[in-house]
Design a protein that fits this description.
alpha+beta
Length: 594
């Protein structure tokens, strides 16, 4: 009520500056049409109730600075740099610009007649009360162009009432726009000339040859100068001037008779020219913008796409549909249910998956097939290919020899088991029960998972035991091996905590035997560093060892007792394989060790 020629204008200004930006954000983030209509209806009502002077003061404020502290605290992302940049960009805008941006996107892409009428109502109120402030902004963002198109009878929606929309749009044009020039000739004219200069380089019969690199740089520079500042050109002006088409011509134009191989070098060279120009920071080029033109261009192209793209989304859980580009930011939740009568697939009924909106059905099928179809490692141990191969070797009196080539190659035992004898893509054998990992801390460790000890990921895991003397990690291989070499990888998280004093031990299920002792060994250094050591043969040993353990007998590089590992591999002569599941005997051995 304080917004109708209020007796306390300061209080009304404070109220409006809080509520209106929140309504804009509510509209942009909502999926349900009812919420979007409600937010827009409230915006329209508040704008209509404001006096011209109050509306001018209101929209001239920052869209973010007028928010109360508790709202700002919630809206200020502290973890994601991309979200922080978006928030800062939002903060810098006047609320009028935020509102005009919303209207431009809405009028271009919305198909709901009710929402279109509400948007036109906001345009009419804003133009009638503060045309000097709103007109140039609406002109640059294409709002005026969309209103004129509606007034001319251009169909806005197959379900809309054309007469009502057309009458309102014509009233806006006649009452507020007829005395104003609605063609942004200045910036658009200059931008169109720059775009045409790019296109002319590749017109058949005009140039007749591949433009030189200097000609390409000069033409591209004419476009890039408009992208050195965020507010230099609007997405509407960029689209209207034909810049998108010009960039496509620059990147893809070629003679129809050229072979694909002949295209390669010129096209790659053009991309280098364009990227070099777009990746030049504004401050480095003597401007005020800290961002490269490529970032500004990406934002403009995203805004253009949001204004023209139609993405209908149909859901049985939500009333109505949506078609905003904002829907791409929200993952979809899919609930699984096994078909009646299905007995071969694993039953994941009741489970839920999150998927990206642009994921295809085939991608979803591939993901689900790996989850519900039995995999090779789901078979009984006796039916696994690598177990059968080792049993055949044992029956024939032969042994599998695994020889080291380089750190974490594809020749070690852990990789061999994790690929089912080199027949399948790699899986972590410790994660799937093909090998069993245990530690001095029991079933869990303070950082990471026990199976991370066997990780072969490109980046090391943050995997550490507790800070206790004589910390250890042990592996039940499920296979007997006489080791000749073994490889370790230092974990990430603590850069100076690499092993210095430790022992590699083996066991056949009764006691631990030291296979190699390390003292003041500084082979491991930075996180992710690796090294391979020889393992001296054990006199009279023909059977090998089933269990291997890394026991830290002193302090690590940081002077602490916690054990840091994120990679283990062993090489040597494999003598036989066990029929029982790895891990069962480890429990008994761990209890004896404790």
């Amino acid at each position: 009520a304080g917004c109708v020629e209020p007796p306390n204008e300061e209080q009304a200004l404070k109220c409006g500056s809080i509520v209106l930006p929140l309504l804009v954000r509510a509209y942009e983030s909502a999926v349900q049409p009812s919420v979007r209509k409600g937010a827009l209806a409230l915006m329209s009502r508040l704008v209509s109730l404001c006096s011209p002077s109050l509306l001018h003061m209101l929209v001239s404020r920052s869209a973010y600075g007028s928010q109360p502290e508790e709202v700002r605290a919630k809206a200020s992302p502290s973890k994601s740099p991309s979200k922080l940049r978006k928030a800062l960009s939002y903060c810098a805008k006047e609320f009028s610009q935020v509102l005009v941006d919303l209207l431009a996107t809405l009028l271009a892409s919305e198909q709901d007649s009710t929402i279109l009428l509400l948007a036109l109502g906001i345009v009419r109120e804003a133009m009638s009360k503060d045309a000097a402030h709103f007109f140039p902004r609406m002109l640059r963002q294409g709002v005026i162009s969309h209103v004129e198109a509606l007034a001319a009878g251009a169909p806005a929606s197959p379900t809309a009432t054309p007469s009502e929309l057309v009458l309102l749009a014509r009233a806006i044009v006649e009452q507020t726009l007829h005395e104003r020039a609605c063609t942004p000739a200045g910036t658009v004219g200059e931008l169109r000339a720059a775009a045409e200069a790019v296109v002319r380089l590749f017109l058949p019969g005009v140039n007749g040859r591949e433009p030189t690199e200097s000609e390409q740089r000069e033409a591209v520079a004419g476009l890039v100068r408009f992208l050195e500042e965020e507010e230099a050109v609007s997405p509407f002006e960029l689209e209207m001037a034909g810049v998108v088409d010009a960039l496509l011509v620059f990147l893809l134009a070629h003679e129809s008779g050229q072979a694909s191989l002949a295209l390669r070098d010129p096209l790659v060279a053009r991309r280098r020219v364009l990227l070099a120009a777009l990746l030049t920071c504004g401050e480095c080029a003597g401007g005020d913008s800290p961002e490269a033109p490529a970032i500004i261009l990406a934002r403009k192209l995203q805004a253009i796409l949001a204004s023209v793209e139609r993405l209908p989304v149909y859901s049985h859980t939500l009333p109505g549909t949506g078609n905003s580009l904002e829907l791409l930011k929200r993952p979809l939740r899919v609930h699984l249910r096994r078909a009646p009568g299905e007995e071969e697939l694993l039953d994941l009924s009741g489970k839920a998956l999150k998927m990206e909106p642009l994921a295809t059905v085939s991608m979803l099928e591939d993901l689900l097939s790996r989850k519900v179809e039995p995999q090779w490692h789901d078979k009984e141990r006796a039916d696994l290919a690598f177990v059968k191969k080792l049993q055949a070797n044992e029956a024939a009196g032969t042994a599998l020899e695994l020889t080291h080539e380089r750190d974490f190659d594809e020749c070690g035992l852990v990789h061999w088991v994790g690929t089912n004898g080199l027949t399948q893509p790699w899986v972590n054998p410790g994660q799937l029960g093909l090998m069993a990992v245990s530690s001095s801390d029991g079933k869990s460790i303070p950082y990471g998972k026990l199976h991370d000890i066997l990780s072969r990921d490109a980046e090391p895991r943050n995997c550490h035991s507790k800070d206790r003397p004589n910390s250890w990690f042990a592996i039940d291989l499920g296979i007997w091996i006489a080791p000749t070499k073994y490889t370790l990888r230092h974990a990430r998280g603590y850069g100076k905590s690499a092993l210095r004093e430790w022992q590699l031990q083996g066991s056949r299920g009764v006691a631990w035997t030291t296979l190699r002792a390390h003292a003041h060994d500084e082979a491991l250094a930075e996180p992710g560093s690796t090294h391979t050591w020889d393992v001296p043969p054990t006199a009279g040993d023909t059977e090998g060892w089933r269990h291997l353990r890394v026991l830290q007998v002193g302090r690590n590089g940081a002077g602490k007792h916690y054990l840091s590992l994120s990679g283990f591999e062993v090489y040597g002569r494999v003598t036989r394989v066990t029929a029982d599941q790895p891990g069962r005997e480890m429990l008994r051995l761990d209890a004896a060790a404790r």
